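Supplementary Note 3. Input sequence used for the single-chain structure prediction.
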Amino acid sequence: MTTTSSLRTAVLGVTGYSGAELVRLLLDHPSLQSHPPLLLGRASSESIALTSIHPQLSGLPHADELSVVPFDLKLLVEEMIDILFLATPHEQSREEVPALIAAGIRVIDLSGAWRLQHESNRAVYKLHDADPTVAAQLQAEAVYGSPELHAEQIKTARLVANPGCYATSILLALAPLIRANVLDLNHGIIADAKSGVSGAGKAPTATTHFMYAADNLSAYAVFGHRHTGELLEQLHLDASQIQFTPHLLPIPRGILSTIYVRLAQPGSIISIQSLYDEFYANAPLVRVRRSPALPQIQHVVRTAFCDLGFQLAPDGNRLVIISCLDNLLKGAASQAVENMNLMAGFPQSSGLR
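The predicted structure, written as discrete structure tokens, is reproduced below.
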């Protein structure tokens, strides 16, 4: 039997790929059927039917009767919104959050605006705050929204910074090893990650154009990808201990990260398997494969799961971890819904299986 709740949600920014997936999940969420999400566009925009923007959502609960209306803080207050999802550019998220929090609205931000605590890591976003003092206070309060790593803090947070897609795939692969202190960090970590074109967003660019991306595989942002700071902060590493290089795959969606590490002491595949199994025993949306089986993008695309697998070299020192997820779901929208579930007291995987 489905139990609905009084939780009221809203989404600002529904036109992008992640925004569309987020709306789809919220419309179908078993605990939100009494109160479908309020959908918001730019303050200067006009109201438009949701299915005019995303015809594929037609037929879902409430979809054919909903419109995307101009953003207005007063409207959010009048509608008694509890949680607002921001699927907006990082500049806009940074600008809007202080007033939203002051109005008593909890925020889950899918941009990179609030993920990074260290100014040196945030510099890549070139953020400018109208009130630096208030922004600094909110930044210190912001919780990094990885349910597998910070579930307890997320439950009571006012501001949750949803992780980046690449960062999610690499963090979930490395966190069990880092926390168990079994890696030789002086040897360094190599994270080779490949993503489908939707990871670059909906706005077309020269490098995401069909004629560039199709039948191609290219590296980009070497030594400079903005998700690097998330890896450093969440894994407590310095830049010399990890090399993360992203690549563009000629597919619509999905991430496969291959991570190369060396163990501090020779280990066994049984001990590694046990380490991952125990770490993710209570993580409903992380699937740990049995070595030597390895994840594939086709097994996670259009799901909310992150799949992990690994193989250990015969010498017992060299370990390769494979992490796969859908960049629009576990790397964005479904992870945001996981965070909402925790904040609202719902089961973490509610509406996501």
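The two ends are 16 Å apart (CA to CA). The first strand starts at residue 9 and ends at 12.
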